[in-house]
Each structure stands twice: as structure tokens, then as C-alpha cells.
Amino acid sequence: MHLIVKGLGWLVLLIVLGLAGLALKVALDGQAVVPERAPLSTADHAWAEDWLHRNRPRDRLAGMPTRVALSAAEAERVANHLIARVGAEGRAAVRLGDGRLDLQGSIALPWGGPERYLNLELGLVETDGALPEVARARIAGVPLPTALVEGLAERTLAALGQSQMVQRTRLGPERISLIYTWQTDGLERLASGLIAETDRAAMLTAQRRLGAHLAQPGAATDLAGLLSTLLGAPSQAPLADNRAALLLLALYVNGQQLHDPEGARLPQRTVTLRKREDLAQHFTASAALALEGGDLLSTLVGWYKEHSDSDGGSGFSFIDLAANRAGIRFAGLATATPAQARWVRERARAGLVEDDFMPRIAGLPEGMNKTEFAARFGDTEDPRYRRIAEHIERRLDARPIHRDAP
Fold this sequence. Notes:
There is one protein chain. The longest helix is centred in the middle third of the chain and has 18 residues, at 197-214. Helix 9 crosses helix 10 (277-293), helix 10 (277-293) runs antiparallel to helix 11 and helix 12 packs across helix 16 (383-397). This protein has helices at residues 5-19, 21-26, 42-54, 72-85, 149-162, 186-194, 197-214, 223-231, 238-253, 277-293, 295-309, 318-334, 338-350, 354-357, 370-377, 383-397, 400-403; strands spanning 65-71, 90-97, 100-108, 117-125, 133-139, 142-143, 166-171, 175-181. The chain has 406 residues and is an alpha+beta fold. The protein folds into 2 domains: 29-183, no CATH class; 195-403, no CATH class. It is globular. It has 17 helices and 8 strands. The chain has a 5-stranded antiparallel β-sheet. Strands 1-8-7 form a 3-stranded antiparallel β-sheet.
């Protein structure tokens, strides 16, 4: 996995799919809603990459208004370039009208069969305010309850409004125009707005506890040490506090944090698992998705990510999948029942080590391209694949945190 580009890109995908987890299970389609067209040329990719580079918010002076504008064709080019850059198979289409924007996207899931597309449609209408409103949000062309897709879109716009970065959005038949003011803590403000109110206070408490730990000389930054610090603290609500700690770690390990109006910004440290940064990212992102979308969805997205890596990324890795499964299993145990949540905190208070929750990775294949993976393991239903997956589960079953759980 490309840690800088793909790590954050896949974390965003995990959060989005986790919040719409039910929709993903019921709304797969047999064909893409976006018609197939010629792939982007090398020149198209180069143009989009140059546009993104020239318009990076971090290169703007804090507090200075900046205007960006794109035609529908240019917006499509950027969207399809980003889809390709995170390793997904899919395409997007953008249509503009007077005061309106319609976005369609189709992502192909990595298995064969008649239903393999996740189709999304989003309609935005211009308002007198800084941001547009959601007029329509659908998955696979089927209207879903507001609490799912429309709720996610509306929450994202609300979070963007709370960040106070965008001053004006105009949607015309020719161009999208946006005026924004970059703020040094803008991403933290945006992330904070996306977190549900019921989680935010506990996550801020966990973030402040993490900050106090990192301020100590020689503070451990391996994942086991951070789990011990956050889960080992006194708690009157172990289920909620365990959930908050795992969600906060998923942000921090992947380079993000919450905006804290009363506290200092956390220093960013590299967090490792089995001496690898990517495994800590896999563990925490999968744990967070398990909390939001369930074990099945976590496994699905983890496998999808590895499959896409085998087709031009760092290669399919059973080691990464072991970290995914370890994160899913840990999150499930830590938030299953109040008694188990308290037991996990007692173990953390005594000090967790990697062998408590993460299987050994020696001998697990990794770095396979698509052709090599198919030749050696076929697909997820192949007995050869199942043998390795079941072997990983047995290794996890033998970890003390699962072996000794009440």
C-alpha cells in the first residue's frame, strides 16, 4: 500500500462505506449506472494531477480567500483520476445545470457475478448560503432512507459548513465555482463535524489522554502501547469509551485527528504494529469500520483493498488481511458486552503486548500481483485461499485476548 496516498484514501472509503453499510449489503447492481467510455489518456491523468497539485489547500496562506472553478468535463477528469489513483475500478460522470449539479459514480466490486456494481447518484442544488443542499442521494438507483445515503451527504455538507472554510459555492451550466479560506486546522474541523455527537465527547477525551501520553519523554508509539494507554484508563462507561478509543486511534494512526477547541494539536508520530506502519493502519481502520458497519462489511472492504493492490499497487497481502481480521476481532470483543468491555480494559491496564491480539505474520504470502494471486489462490472461494484464511483465524483464536476472554 502506498502509505501516503492510498492509506488516507482508503480510510475515507472505509468511513463512507461504514456509514452506509446497510445500503451496500442490499443495493448492489448488475450494471454500472455510468456508461462506459474511453479511459483517461496519459495527458488527461497528467492534467488532473497538475490541477490537484496547483490547487492543494495546504499551499494556500491561512485566512486568504481562494477561488477554484471547473467545467463539468474538467470535474469528471479529476474525479476519474482520483478513482484510478486509489486503485479502484470505476468511473464518474458530472452534469451541470443552472443552480444544479448531478454526480453519478459506479465502483466495480472485485468478484464476478451478476451483481458487482455499487452505483451512487447525488444531486445538489445551489442555495443562498455558502453550500448547496442535497436534492437527491441514491445507491443503485433505489431511493434509500435519509438516515443512510442522504443522511451521510447532509452530514458531510454540515461538517463542511461547521469548518467555516467555504464562503460561496455557485453551480452554473458551464462551471462549478468555489471560494474557500484555508485554515491550518481545517481538516481537523471537518473530521470533527463528521463524527456523531454521541461519539465526539468521548473521542476528545481519548485524544487528550493520548496527547498527555505522547508528551512524556520516551513515550511508546507502538500500537500495543497506545491501546494500553487509552483502554487502560479508568472508565464509567467501558463500552462507549472502548468504541471512542478505537475510532480515535483509527484517525490518529492514519494521520488525522479531531479539532479540539480547548486542547493543543497532537504531535504526529508513526505508529507501528509488528514494526510496520501499514499493519497499524490496517488494524485500526478495520476496527473502526467494524464498529460502524459490522464484521461482514469490514472483511469485504479489506479484501477489496487487497485485491485492488494486486492490480498495480503493492500486491495482495495475507499479512495485511491478518491485520484487518485482528482489528475486526479486537473491536468486536472490546464492544460486545459491558462485561467483555471491562475485561478488555483490565487487560489493557496490565499492559498489552502485540502477541496478545496480533498473530505472528511469518510465512504468510504477500506482494502478489493479480496474475500470481489467481494462479496460487484463485479467489476467495478457492480451497487454497480458504486454507490460509482459516489458518489466520486459528492464529487469532490462539491470541490470549481471545483465548482467555470471558
